[in-house]
Amino acid sequence: ALDNLGNKRLESLVLTGSSAGAIGVQIWARRLLESFDFDAAAVISDSFAGIFPDGVQGRVQEEGGLCETGLLHKKFDFVCKDGALVIADVYEDAMEAFPD
């Protein structure tokens, strides 16, 4: 998408995901918001409850290779590799970095 747009500023950027895509949009949100130049943006994550038994969500992310993708902000390196990453924390971080 960046190659197709060049250096154009977007009036709006909307990122959405539902069901399993809701997990993806939460993980990708910060990276995409950092990558594009825009006037307004919205991230919509629909239909992912994020309910796991204690300790399972972090292990799934770590064993699934998320820690090595480069998608996470560096502050999540240790917690991800420790198997303790919670997707809601990643999403909250993106929203704090882009509050408007």
Sheet with the most strands: spatial strand order:
1-2
Q: Would you count the extended β strands for me?
A: 2
* Overall outline: globular
Number of helices: 5
**Percent of residues in β-strands:** 15-25%
- How much helix, percentage-wise, in residues? 40-55%
Could you give a quick summary of the protein structure above?
This protein has 100 residues and is an alpha+beta fold. 44% of the residues lie in helices and 18% in strands.
Give me some keywords for this one.
single chain; 18% strand; two-stranded parallel ribbon; alpha+beta; 100 residues
Model description:
- The chain is an alpha+beta fold.
- A two-stranded parallel sheet has the order 1-2.
- Helix 2 runs parallel beside helix 5.
What is the secondary structure topology, with strand pairs?
Elements: H1 2-5, E1 10-18, H2 20-35, E2 38-46, H3 56-63, H4 77-81, H5 87-97
Parallel strand pairs: 1-2
Helix pairs in contact: 2-5
